[in-house]
Every structure is written in C-alpha cells, then in structure tokens.
Amino acid sequence: MATRLLLADLMTAAAEAGLGEVETESVGGVDAAERVAAGEEFDLVFLADGALAKLADGGHVTPASVTPLVLSQVAVAVPSDADTPAAATTDPAFESVAGVRDAIRAATKIGYSTGPSGTALVRMLEDWGLTAEVGGRLVQARPGIPVAQLLADGEVDLGFQQLSELVGRPGVTVLGVMPQGCAIDTVFSGAVATTSAEPDAAAVILSFLGTDAARDIARSHSFAVPPTR
C-alpha cells in the first residue's frame, strides 16, 4: 500500500513512454506475497525487499529480475486540527533515540502499520524493554486503513508509518523521520513474476522504473533512491 500512488504515476509515465499499459492492484504486503506464492497470475510484483527475496527463493519471481527501486523512511506524526495536507520533511522527528522513547512512553495510543515497518517498530520496542509498559497502548492499523487515518480520527495520538503514506493527508502533522540509531528504512523492489505471460515486456517496464525520470517521480512522492549494492 505504501507504493500505490507512486506506482500509479510510474505506470502512467511508462505508458506515455510507449511501453504499454499496465494495470496495478495495491493491497497489503502480506496479502500480496500470499497471492503471488499461491500462484495467482501477475506480470510484475512490487514488495519490500525481504518479502520479495522470499518469493524469489520460492521460485515465484525470477531471482535475476529483482530490482531495488525506492527507499522509504518511517516518519513520526501527530494529529492536527488543520485541514491542510500534511507537508513532507526528511528532518529527524527527534534529536535522539531517547526522544523517540520518551514520546512513545508519553503517548496515550500509538498507531503503527502492518508490514515491515510495523514489524520493525514492535521489535524495536521489545529491544528497548517497553513492550510490557506500552503494549496495551499499541493500535495496529486495520488492512487498508493508513495510520494517518487513525491520527485524523483521533484513535491514536502518535503514529509511525512510511513517510509517503503520511504526506498529503489532512488532519496530520509530520514531525519528521526516525532519527539515526532507530531509523526504520524499507527498500521496495520489483521483480518479474514467474507466472507472467509476457515476461519480456514486464522486464522492459521494470527497467524503465530504474531510470532517472522514474526516480524523479519517486522523489515527488517522498521516496529516496535506494543505496547501490
């Protein structure tokens, strides 16, 4: 879900470049991986790097086609009374890890998402020894419901989610991204599905997504370029 708006714009750009029309369907990462693993027919698959690696190991996507596309940072947000869309910022939400811990301990309800970013946050709380203290205050966003919606609706007073999913949402103020020492970054990659009826055409689309033009579109959606391997 974190890449749904980005993918829509990327596929529009691919079509305008004469590479053909691509129909995209965005669902939660767990659901997407399960559907691909079950053999449902797709041409391309876009998921967090770790989930895509598992699909490659299982023979569900072509390993050689796996291509890192964008880097997504988890940001911290709070509710806002303003109706203006939340602005993007890549500045740290807090000066230190201690600031993040203090904010979590002070929050009444803490919203977090499904997928790799939510898993990383829960693991971080365990590492900090805060699970017993704040576990009852954690609110995981329901499938298809962004953390931004929980914030805007007053269900939580502190939220953690991919920056790209918070930017542009009304009723939310983005404090910034997680600071060094507790940053939660996710690389989203693409790959050609082994069920594809047109793997060569799919590979051409995937190659386009690594061009400078595609990266400019990604930056406009508050994503960064992933580090080279």
TrEMBL record:
Entry protein name: Substrate-binding domain-containing protein
One Gene Ontology MF term: molybdate ion binding
Gene Ontology annotations of biological process type: molybdate ion transport
Highest taxon of the lineage: Bacteria
InterPro entries: ModA/WtpA
Any coiled-coil regions, as ranges: none
